[in-house]
Every structure is written in structure tokens, then in C-alpha cells.
Design a protein that fits this description.
Elements: E1 2-6, E2 11-16, H1 21-30, E3 38-41, H2 47-59, E4 62-66, E5 69-73, H3 83-86, H4 95-103, E6 105-108, H5 122-130, E7 133-136, E8 141-145, E9 150-153, H6 159-169, E10 176-179, H7 185-196, E11 200-202, E12 209-212, E13 220-222, H8 227-240, E14 242-247, H9 257-262, E15 266-269, E16 273-278, E17 286-289, H10 301-308, E18 314-318, H11 327-335, E19 339-343, E20 346-350, E21 358-360, H12 364-376, E22 380-384, H13 387-390, H14 396-402, E23 406-410
Parallel strand pairs: 2-14, 3-13, 9-10, 17-18, 21-22
Antiparallel strand pairs: 1-22, 1-23, 3-5, 4-5, 6-8, 7-8, 10-12, 11-12, 14-16, 15-16, 18-20, 19-20
Bound molecules: ligand EPZ.
Ligand EPZ is lined by residues 21-22, 25, 90-91, 114, 117-124, 156, 158-161, 182, 298-299, 321-322, 364-365, 392.
GO molecular function: UDP-N-acetylglucosamine 1-carboxyvinyltransferase activity
Domain Enolpyruvate transferase: 7-400
Pathway: Cell wall biogenesis; peptidoglycan biosynthesis
Length: 412
């Protein structure tokens, strides 16, 4: 699927953020830990969620998805995950810890995800071994045994590894202490849900977390709003001009992105909404360096680069989290006339006027960034391989159209 986009139209109105992709995926993984029903509301109907439900069904769980609510029930008994399904999303790797805890083993052929770097899983593996599991890497990742308790320090605050180890620990009656954990809002929601299931968790939302697990029961939860989606609509309005209110969001979840935008645009923060006003003319952003939460989120790097491409002035972006998350989009923005140079992990951008072009998305957030740039460009653009975007943005075309964007999906 491609998007045909007519640039130069201001955006005005309200848009509601959907539930967070990177929050619901670990919650679905955690549902393996109990045979009792788990009910999650405010779930986004996106490809990654649909594929995660297929993976849960492959383990033996029953799933139902209706009107934004997902119910997962039944017993997980099969821990050999289908390779084709695992390859569709990075989130498949999150099943390692919960399947190990529930069934005494798990085999993950190869997880998928955005082509933004190598995406190794050495921290997941090292952590599971340190806590008592046997893990081999002959064909993908195969772990077995049980978590015996203990302490493990992550060499870096990996989001996925933190989530996997939390799930593995949640069924262990002996205490497990994890140090240098990721502290993203999505990780904190997983901790809250594991506690609602019966695990005792101290240090929630901090970098040192202790889990005392045991027999876990079902529960229900409302998925937190998607902070990346929220920031995407704010950045798009900033780039093309207009006034947009993003509803059902949590301003503090946007980390360093919001202060950066406040320095260039009129931003009003409500309890659960953010309004931005832009005349489409703004200075470059100076120096941006991506970092774990609450720093500048790597998932907002490509969208911010598209915004910087139409600024008046210079922006330097350093991508510290993923080794290959700059080059492709820079080449595509250059097709639209952007003045952007990438050397290693550093992009130097001198804002300019963009013109429409045919560009190709290579990953989820990069694809959204190309749509942002096309909406700000003069003339018609085509964003090819836009299916990537549908992995993480619910009703993307409809939400933008309702704000006044000239965007139409066509089959490629
Ligand atoms: C999660 O990926 C998100 N995905 C990513 O969002 C997000 O960019 C990332 O966290 C960082 O916030 C999901 O939650 C499904 P990491 P994850 O483990 O868990 C290295 C999106 O667009 N690393 O925190 O894979 C890794 O290579 C996606 O929604 C190891 O070296 O990220 C990377 O350089 C893209 N060994 C860094 O750590 C490991 O064992 C951060 O990775 C694990 C990670």
C-alpha cells in the first residue's frame, strides 16, 4: 500500500491518541503467565497487535478483540513459536520470559521489527541465564528450566529485556532484583499489571526493581495512550502549520520532546491533552541527542528530522540508541529537497523548502516521518511501502484526513 499526499494544507481540529503499541505488546505477553482471563481496553487495532494475538493463539491461548478491548484466556501449553509469525514483529521476543515462567521453556526462532539496527537479544539471554534458566542460541533462542531468583544488572536499560525479565520473574516465588532497568512508561504499566496479577513489586518505575512472584491470577487494565503517536501529530501540525489538539495523552510521557517543541511553538498542556499552534515558520532545533526515557526518544528522531528539514536554520541529531536509524530516511528526505548530511550516528540538517517526490518507507516511524515531510512539501508526493506505518498507527490516514490533510491510500 502507498499513500498519495498533497502538501501544503494546514491541519486543524482534534485527534485522539490510541492505546500504546509498545505498552499493549508486553501486556499481551504477560497474559501467558495465568490461565485466568486478562482483559485490556483501549487497545489499538494495528498489525503488530493482530500478529501478537496470532502468536498467543499459537501457544494455546484463546483471544478475542472487539471494540478496542482484548480478552486473553485459556492455558498456554505450546512454547515453540512459529517462525513466520515471530518474524513479523520485535514484540514476539517478549514471549520468551512469560512462556519460560509458565511452561518451563520457550523457543523463539527469530523476532522481527524495524530494520533500524542489529536488534540483538544478548541482554535478554544473559539475564535469563543469570536468573537460573538454560539458554541456547543454536536455532534462534531456546530457553528452558526455571527462574531461581537472584539479582541481575542489565548492561544497558533495554526496554524489551527489562520486560522479558520482569515476566520471567513474576512467577518465581524467590525474589528477583533487576538493576539498570528501563523506566519507560510502557515498562511501568507492565509492572503495574504484574502487581495486579499478584506479584509483589517494589521500585516500580525506577531503575532498580524487585519482584516477588508466585501464582498469578487474571486482571484487567486500560492501555496507556501512545506517546509516539501523540508526538507524531504534534510534529506534523508543527511542520505544516495550523492548530491541533491531541486528546487522551499524557504530556509527561513525551519526555524531552515537549520542552523542545515549547521552545518553538505555542503549546498548551491539559490534564490529558496537548494543543499546538504553528504558523509553519520556526527555527532549527540546535542539538538533539537520543537517550532512554525521559530523554529524547529514539522513536521520535525520524519525525523530528522531518520537522527540522523544513525549519529555518540548523539542527544536529545524534542517534545513540540504534546504529541504523538515520541513513534511509535522510536519503528519502533528500529526494524531497532536504539539505541533510549523515555521518555515522550524526545527522546535520539545514532547513529548507521541500518539494513533492516519490519516496519509500523502510520502517514504522520512518514512514510516518516521510508522511510528515510530504504534508509539509509543496506539491504531490507518493510514500511507497506505507504498510510499515500500519504496524503502529491506528486509523492513520483517517485521523490525518479529519485534520485536513490531503492523503489517500492506494494499492501499490
Ligand atoms: C523497544 O524496542 C521498542 N519496541 C522500540 O520501538 C523502541 O525504539 C525501543 O524499545 C527503545 O525505546 C517495542 O517496545 C516493541 P531496546 P527494544 O531493547 O526493546 C540494544 C517502535 O518504533 N540492545 O531498548 O528492541 C538495541 O540494539 C519501536 O515502536 C542490545 O544490544 O529496544 C538498541 O541499540 C522501534 N541487546 C538498544 O539496546 C539486547 O539484548 C535499545 O534497545 C537488547 C537491546
Amino acid at each position: 500500500m502507498d499513500y498519495l499526499i498533497g502538501g501544503g494544507h494546514r491541519l486543524n481540529g482534534e485527534v485522539t491518541a490510541s492505546g500504546c503499541k509498545n505498552a499493549v505488546l508486553p501486556l499481551l505477553a504477560a497474559s501467558v503467565l495465568t490461565d485466568e482471563p486478562m482483559v485490556f481496553c483501549n487497545c489499538p487495532d494495528i498489525a503488530d497487535v493482530r500478529n501478537m494475538l496470532l502468536l498467543l493463539q499459537a501457544t494455546g491461548k484463546h483471544t478475542d478483540f472487539c471494540d478496542g478491548s482484548i480478552t486473553v484466556s485459556g492455558k498456554a501449553s505450546n512454547n515453540l513459536l512459529p517462525a513466520a509469525l515471530c518474524a513479523r514483529l520485535r514484540g514476539s521476543g517478549l514471549l520468551l520470559g512469560s512462556l519460560l515462567a509458565k511452561t518451563g521453556g520457550a523457543s523463539l526462532p527469530q523476532s522481527g521489527g524495524c530494520a533500524i539496527g542489529d536488534r540483538p537479544m544478548d541482554i535478554h539471554i544473559d539475564g535469563l541465564r543469570a536468573l537460573g534458566a538454560e539458554v541456547s542460541e543454536r536455532k534462534g533462542i531456546c530457553c528452558r528450566g526455571s527462574i531461581a531468583g537472584g539479582r541481575y544488572r542489565l548492561r544497558m536499560p533495554s526496554v524489551g529485556a527489562t520486560e522479558n525479565l520482569l515476566c520471567a520473574a513474576a512467577a518465581c516465588v524467590h525474589p528477583v532484583t533487576l538493576e539498570n532497568c528501563a523506566v519507560e512508561p510502557e515498562v511501568e504499566q507492565l509492572q503495574q499489571v504484574l502487581q495486579s496479577m499478584g506479584a509483589e513489586i517494589t521500585g516500580m518505575g525506577t531503575s532498580t526493581v524487585t519482584v516477588r512472584g508466585g501464582r498469578l491470577h487474571g486482571c484487567s487494565a486500560e492501555v496507556i495512550p501512545d506517546r509516539i503517536e501523540c508526538a507524531t501529530y504534534l510534529a506534523t501540525c508543527a511542520a505544516v502549520g495550523g492548530k491541533v489538539t491531541v486528546k487522551r495523552c499524557v504530556p509527561r510521557h513525551l519526555g524531552a520532546f515537549l520542552p523542545l517543541m515549547k521552545g518553538r511553538f505555542h503549546i498548551e498542556e491539559g490534564q490529558d491533552c496537548i494543543t499546538i499552534c504553528s504558523d509553519g515558520v520556526f527555527e532549527g532545533f540546535g542539538y538533539i541527542s537520543t537517550a532512554p526515557y525521559p530523554g529524547f526518544h529514539t522513536d521520535l528522531q525520524q519525525i523530528t528530522a522531518a520537522l527540522a528539514a523544513v525549519a529555518c536554520g540548523k539542527t544536529v541529531i545524534v542517534e545513540n540508541m540504534f546504529e541504523n536509524r538515520l541513513t534511509h530516511n535522510a536519503s528519502q528526505l533528500a529526494l524531497m529537497g532536504a539539505n541533510i548530511t549523515v555521518r555515522g550516528r550524526r545527522a546535520e540538517i539545514f532547513g529548507s523548502k521541500l518539494h513533492g517526490a516519490c519516496v519509500t518507507a523502510a520502517d514504522l516511524r520512518g514512514g510516518a516521518a516521510l508522511v510528515t515531510a510530504a504534508l509539509a512539501a509543496k506539491g504531490q508526493s507518493r510514500v511507497r511501502c506505507a504498510n510499515h506505518i500500519l504496524r503502529g498507527y491506528e486509523n492513520f490516514e483517517q485521523k490525518l484526513s479529519r485534520l485536513g490533510a490531503d492523503i489517500r491510500a492506494i494499492e501499490d
